[in-house]
Amino acid sequence: MLDVTCNIRDKLRRGERLTFDDGVALFLEPDLLAVGALANEACEKRHGNFTYFNRNMRVEITNVCVASCLFCSFAKLEAHMPGAHTMSLEEAWRELEVRMDDPPSEIHVVNGLHPGLPFSYYEELLRGYKRIKPDIHLKCFTAVEIHFFAQHFGMTYQEVLVRLRDAGLDSLPGGGGEIFDEDVRSRISAGKATAANYLEVHRVAHHLGMPTNATMLYGHIETFAHRVDHLLRLRALQDETKGLQAFIALAFHPDGNGMKNLPAPTAVDDLRTIAVSRLLLDNVEHIKAYWVSLTPDVAQLALRFGADDLDGTVVHETIYKNAGSHSPGALEEGELVRLIREAGRIPIERDTLYNVIREYPRAAVPEAALKVKDRQRARRALREASVQNACSSKETGS
Ligand code: V47
Fold it and tell me: Which of 189, 217, 298, 322 is in Cβ range 3.0-4.6 Å of 73 for a Cys bridge?
């Protein structure tokens, strides 16, 4: 551990706030485990041994988008382009209806900025979900979408948010944060909400009592200083409003987008970024390790590098799939529980507002059951493989 990191450790133990230079120094510290240990300590101080997850589902209603972000492999500029899709309201509602025998507690909607849909479409969308399941939490529309609605429909942020809240909106997801630095942002996502717009939408939501999450897209053309600047702008907003529930660092995926020549960030970068986020965002309760972006393996490790939340079951996701993510499309609750337990944590199923729905016992019973299930799965796979081998030996006569 470098001297500078020892100084940071001492500062943290004295309860002092980290500075911009501390943040950059943590990114430059070669001893990843030392940075991870500091973040783990900060995380355990808040959450003890608990790790959260929820049962959620993702709905991407439309990928038609007037913005052309360099990192995006999801959007289509115009509705008639191959691959462009926009769900009818009935199709969007059906996504929930078909899951009502084991319903999620949250729907997370992220869309493109579609120039042709009326505002009433979004209001009806929310009303319809609440009709199907009145207690579902609707975490829908990024700050970038809210900014777009305000411009496109001639309303203030407050007017947009109040109308959506009246239709059933409960909170805003963190998408669209990208990188706040104006130069980087204008290069990777021109033509959409600026950093100031993004922060202002969150500020207005918080003043209305609506919680939000925040994100940062890292691992492309930004520097460590840009990441620290981003985190500190969020910390300043949180000092003011206290409305951010969770922060999510999103690892850049390069397939099929305008930055496809860049390599994806490595696991070391992922873990370090999560750790530094935990240390700089000393006023944000939850740091998520979003397994879709990190892979379940790295997300699991992140639970020892400052993260206290794995997001959720997700069920259906295309933004990362299109950008080359090898993560599965969904994780069952049992798999999330197992990832958490194996990291030495106690799983808590939460709702979107972090109320506890279920605390899983540390006890060996469900874990043993899982292991048995795994053993059964392995035996079945072996049996199937040997049947297949036997068949192909017969066919080839070997
Ligand atoms: O806004 C798009 C990012 C975000 C790529 O609030 C990409 O709980 C990496 O915001 N490589 C959408 N990232 C996802 C998001 C999110 C995810 C999980 C939880 C929450 C929450 C929010 O995905 C976009 C954009 O920043 N993104 N393309 C890409 N190629």
Answer: 322
Q: How far is the CA of 250 from the centre of ligand 1 (A)?
A: 6
Atom of ligand 1 nearest to the CA of 325: 11
Q: 144-186 pLDDT, tens per residue?
A: 999 999 999 999 999 999 999 999 999 999 999 999 999 999 9
Ligand 1 center–CA 228 separation, angstroms: 19
Helix/strand/coil for 32: helix
Annotation: CATH topology of 46-376: TIM Barrel (3.20.20)
What's the gap in Å between 175 CA and the centre of ligand 1? 5
In whole angstroms, give the CA distance from residue 328 to residue 321. Answer: 9
Q: Is 51 exposed, middle or buried (0-12, 13-18, 19+ CB in 10 A)?
A: buried
CB 50 within 8 A of CB 337: no
Q: List the domain boundaries for the chain.
A: 46-376
Neighbours of 88 (CB within 10 A): 10
H helices of 242-316, in order, are 267-280, 291-294, 296-302
Do the beta carbons of residue 175 and residue 311 sit within 8 Å?
A: no
Other beta carbons within 10 angstroms of residue 200's beta carbon come to 17
Residue 310 DSSP label: E
